[in-house]
Amino acid sequence: MEGGKLIIFSAPSGSGKTTIVRHLLKQNDLNLAFSVSATSRPRRGKEKNGEHYYFMTVGEFKKHIKNDDFLEWEEVYRDNFYGTLKSEVERIWGEGKNVIFDIDVVGGLRIKKKYPEQTLAVFVKPPSVDELKIRLKKRSTESDDKINMRIAKASVEMATAPQFDTIIKNYDLDIALNEAYGLVKDFLAKPIAKEDKKGTEK
Ligand code: 5GP
Questions:
Q1: Does the UniProt entry include the keyword Transferase (predicted)?
Q2: What is the DSSP annotation of 68-102?
Q3: Residue 35 alpha carbon, nearest atom of ligand 1
Q4: Does 83 sit in the ligand 1 pocket, CB within 6 Å?
């Protein structure tokens, strides 16, 4: 696989990364298209198949793993698999666009490792874990148990921030949106450096 650029936004859920990604998708000059992930988690609210996620059963997801169809995949929560299909990235590159991802930190870092020069990996930092809890409760799309599971994971995820190319502090949304736009714009303006991939693999 080779092609355009990859822009990754990773963060604990509730950090505001989805809002940032949606904002960037509206900026036509960036020529971005959203990578729709596959997931085995149940559909929430008004989510649409093929738009928010490709929803599938755990069995279907495991079949794709076996066929080596994923660029990366992760069991983010128990029996809730998430992954990026290679075909999704190829489809977007085929349209001459750059890919933007809204994925978890492990998946984000995996893609960065596979395509170090083509990828900008951004970590979105929420003000605090307490603030995350408030945001997730406000969203009220899930049970308290599920929210607590996400909070527990958030502390672990926060520790991975230094491994990203850059960190955006989402304390003030307007500032974070502007910062994200500038970072992506600059990264897209740079040519892809020819690099020795082997030298960057850990
Ligand atoms: P949610 O259930 O809130 O939509 O997503 C839960 C977590 O899974 C979020 O952190 C989200 O970014 C992450 N996620 C979504 N798609 C993918 C993917 O394709 N791969 C990985 N590794 N994580 C994903």
A1: yes
A2: T-EEEEEEEETTEEEEEEHHHHHHHHHTT-EEEEE
A3: 19
A4: yes
